[in-house]
Amino acid sequence: CLSFNIGKEMKKIEPFVTLVGAGPGDADLITLKGVKAIKTADVILYDALVNEDILAYAKADCTKIYVGKRAEQLSTSQDQINQLLVDYALTHGHVVRLKGGDPFVFGRGGEELDYVHQFDIPTAVVPGISSSVGLTGLQQIPLTYRGISESFWVITGATSDGRLSDDLYAAVKTNATVVVLMGYSKLKQIVSLYQDNGRGDLPIALIQNGSLENERIALGTVDTILAEVQKNLVGVPAIIVLGEVVRKHQHFKSVCLELKSLSI
Questions:
Q1: Residues with active-site annotation
Q2: What is the DSSP string of 98-128?
Q3: Cβ of 7: how many Cβ atoms within 10 Å?
Q4: 7 has a pLDDT exceeding 80
Q5: By the 8 A CB rule, do 49 and 100 touch?
């Protein structure tokens, strides 16, 4: 513990870092435990995909710092974020690292904990609803379904060296449901990969800004999805869902019938 003189008072600093998953977008989808952590935070470092309505739970004197990171945009580096976590914990006390989705699903939460632990600062984690399971659920697309899909894969679409993940080359040969996060910029490559493996008829969905008022969705097959994405003006941030379970979406049949009638 550290102590600092503030006027005539002595404030005791007890460094602590909590990783909190904010969920996929809708502020109501954060957990009660996440809200409790935010209410006790002295500092909150929050990401670009965090709904800022959640910050209203913070106490009046809480310091809120935006450290958003998005592909192809200026952002706070991971090294800077790591250092901020430690610096603020040592000088302010309880730091909440508020991350979109779940901290441990492509959120670099593990890397941040590893860094903080080097300084013997106590930590905790509050899981969040990952977009991979939350947004598909809201769209009533079951990731698993008896007789259709026995497993689901969650794969990054943006590797550090800019390639498609090697796991996609393996997943395309299975019947598993595949959810690709941060993969919008690689959509054409993903489509080509599935077509090259004879899977042009496989259902696919793209969900942009899922759970929010400006949500957009594109439904189709691997062969038709690029046109559907353009027609529905779907862009980033979006998740990609590939698999027969996409047929369970309540509008999938009507979209396919419309596409079929246009092709006649």
A1: 47, 69, 182
A2: EESB-TTSSS-HHHHHHHHHTTT--EEEE--
A3: 6
A4: no
A5: yes
